[in-house]
Amino acid sequence: MPSATRGGIEQLAELVRAADSVVALTGAGISVPSGIPDFRSPGTGLWENVDPMEVAHIDAWRRDPKRFWSFYGARFTMLGDKEPNDAHRALVTLERAGRLDAVVTQNIDRLHRRAGSADVVEVHGSVERSVCLSCPGEQTLEATLERLHADPDGIPRCDCGAPLKPGVVLFGEWLPEGALERAHQLAASADLLLCIGSSLEVQPVAQLPSVTRMNGGQVAILTQGPTPYDRRVAVKRSGDVVSELRALLDALGL
Ligand code: ZN
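Above: the input record for the complex with zinc ion. Below: its predicted structure, written as tokens.
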């Protein structure tokens, strides 16, 4: 299916200007310019030779933390080295100019926070911290990797001795309730939901554009490739996210 384009950047800028509340909803596409592949893109995925449902499942972590971390350790090391890009920074500019209330993201890469966004809702968790399920202990990404490398079995451990679990939502785990509720509230109260780099196919974010529209808000999409909402939104742009957001800032005089 060819990816549709609706509306221009000037029209998007007008929607932003007219809105009291703008909320951004971001997916893997905003981090691709930082060198983080979208795992669902053929040929570029991190999941190429493994079944994510098997490797990244809470049962796999429980059953065999050594095997789990031998896979996740490499992924964490890769993510730990990545830097925010101009698309992340454009959202910081919008937020600081009072044009953006919050960022809701599916991404676990912590790049919105590192770029400087103040209000970030991470519905799939983040690699920023690892947690212990046996005690309240938690560790930063950096400390987790240090412990992983120091452990003879390659398992990063809590001070209590139990294996750490990444602070991301694994398959078979519930999504964080507080983050979900906040994302829903933000979508419901947004005059404009600005969806960036998300195919809007994965729950829970897939339903958020409908939540905004049912509450009288508008939806704009900056995503390469089709989404289920393309024909029903005010603006859909399919260009590179960095160029699109730069053009939006220009149009807003920011
Ligand atoms: Zn512990």
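Notes for the reader.
Residues 40-81+128-168 form a domain with the SIR2/SIRT2 'Small Domain' fold (CATH 3.30.1600.10).
The CA atoms of residues 62 and 68 lie 9 Å apart.
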